[in-house]
């Protein structure tokens, strides 16, 4: 993890890092409410495997409902962020990391991720999530 741009926000950097870990742990446990607690209602989500940019949490929810009803929700043995760089400027944070997804019985998949966060009260919420699947 890097320090913030100003060097004074190490508690904020740690809070963002802890939130990212909690979000992915929630995904592994199938705890959607806990996962969503890290997302702003107007979050935009751009990922390699998604059907285009999702511009609100409502659009993300609709996508997840359809995916889950079809039985296509990913099953993973592990999901973790590594090689993190997190910077904070006031009430804005940016986290960049490599996301490692470990499907059962298959090689790990790596994605390059950027999350833009906004402080809302005592909480950091993701307002933009961009993930690009890296090649083998």
UniProtKB/TrEMBL annotation:
DUF4440 domain sequence ranges: 22-126
Protein origin, superkingdom: Bacteria
TM segment ranges: none
SUPFAM superfamilies, sorted: NTF2-like
Name recorded for this polypeptide: DUF4440 domain-containing protein
Organism: Streptosporangium jomthongense
């Amino acid at each position: 993890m890097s320090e913030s741009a100003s060097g004074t926000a190490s508690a904020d950097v740690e809070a963002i890092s802890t939130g990212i870990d909690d979000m992915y742990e929630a995904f592994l446990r199938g705890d959607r409410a806990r996962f969503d607690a890290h997302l702003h209602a107007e979050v935009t989500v751009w990922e390699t495997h998604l059907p285009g940019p999702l511009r609100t949490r409502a659009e993300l929810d609709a996508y997840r409902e359809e995916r889950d009803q079809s039985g296509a929700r990913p099953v993973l043995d592990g999901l973790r962020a590594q090689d993190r760089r997190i910077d904070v400027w006031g009430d804005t944070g940016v986290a960049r990391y490599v996301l490692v997804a470990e499907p059962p019985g298959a090689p790990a998949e790596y994605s390059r991720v950027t999350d833009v966060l906004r402080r809302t009260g005592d909480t950091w919420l993701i307002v933009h999530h961009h993930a690009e699947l890296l090649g083998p």
